[in-house]
Amino acid sequence: MNHIVTVQDAVTAFADFMEPTDAELEAIEQEMPVIRADIELLDAQIITLDRIPTELDNRRIRRARRRVLAERLILANRTAAATLPGGAA
Fold first, then answer.
1. Can you give the three-state secondary structure of the chain, one letter per residue?
2. Under 8 Å CB-to-CB from 45, ≥6 apart: which residues?
3. What is the largest CA-CA distance in the chain?
């Protein structure tokens, strides 16, 4: 008789190793403002996919782009400040 073995043990055997580390979770947390700004920009762009953008739509997209750039600048400055020796910015 041949036994049928599930692959559940093989799939979940490494579950502990697949969890994000504290450093990875911290990095994600640091990037969340950029992620939220990107989502806002995508939402503004998706709204205009099936119609001609109005002036309000164009303003919303421009505002979202500026927010993305601002958040990326903040993140880049924070990252650069953290990597410079002596804490100099």
1. CCCCCCCHHHHHCCHHHHCCCHHHHHHHHHHHHHHHHHHHHHHHHHHCCCCCCCHHHHHHHHHHHHHHHHHHHHHHHHHHHHHCHHHCC
2. 61
3. 73
Token pair 């993140």 in the structure block, residue:
75
Residue 36 burial (CB count, 10 A): 13
Question: What tokens appear for 37 in the block?
Answer: 């700004």
In the chain the first and final C-alpha atoms are separated, in Å, by 70
Place of tokens 């055997």: 13
Mean of all residue pLDDT scores within the chain: 85
Residues written for the chain: 89
Report the alpha-carbon distance of residue 41 to residue 46 in Å, rounded. 9
Read off the pLDDT of residues 60-69 as tens digits, 9 standing for 90 and up: 999 999 999 9
